[in-house]
């Protein structure tokens, strides 16, 4: 299983420094979580190539509409079509769509939200197929999204789309909040799993919380999952989504990333 990292956790904006750091951490690649509108795809692609890194996914962290009035179906499709185009230009394998729920803020009911997402997913899936990019949805906890919080909810939603090419990302931190049984969730997703993300129950590195990563690892092997595995940890005192504030915290985070990567590689 190749190991990568969600780039936002590092809090590094210059592309050269970002790729250098990912390489120094001993990782194989990354989820590029930066605002694609602020970067030239050629620069990102060449920097990743220079350091021998794979851009596994374009996973936009800043995926909110700039204004409430922009939260429309057309606006969402336009934004994520741009993400797909960027993914093509940097040779990324897929694009994550969990941020699409941020664009439903003008919907007046859960039914309207579901219809909005269904239409958006269908149109974006068609566009991604033309561009030969795979899409993925990530099950995230209720504090980040009001929809698709569990593996089963993701599976049920995707089932109604029928002939789609959309996979699912599971994250140990989010599963700890939402799933009754995380191991069962991994088994339920099975071949639809495109990525597994690591962070312990406190959002820190492996062993800083109470998640049974040995059991998770064994279940991933059982279903034939081959990766990538993406590290998405922060320092527990900065959880859930704050990046290092100074040099000392950056070193602490990098040490935790290296330690967690080493522990994961040694699990059997």
What does this structure look like?
This protein is of the alpha/beta class and 268 residues long. The protein has one domain (3-266): TIM Barrel (Alpha-Beta Barrel), CATH 3.20.20.150. Helix content is 42%, strand content 13%. It has helices spanning 15-24, 41-50, 73-89, 110-131, 151-159, 172-178, 182-189, 213-222, 247-266; strands at residues 3-6, 29-32, 54-58, 94-96, 134-138, 166-171, 193-198, 229-231. It has an eight-stranded parallel β-barrel, surrounded by six helices. Strand 5 (134-138), helix 5 and strand 6 form a beta-alpha-beta unit. Helix 7 (182-189) runs parallel beside helix 8. The longest helix is centred in the middle third of the chain and has 22 residues, at 110-131. The model has no long low-confidence stretch (mean pLDDT 95).
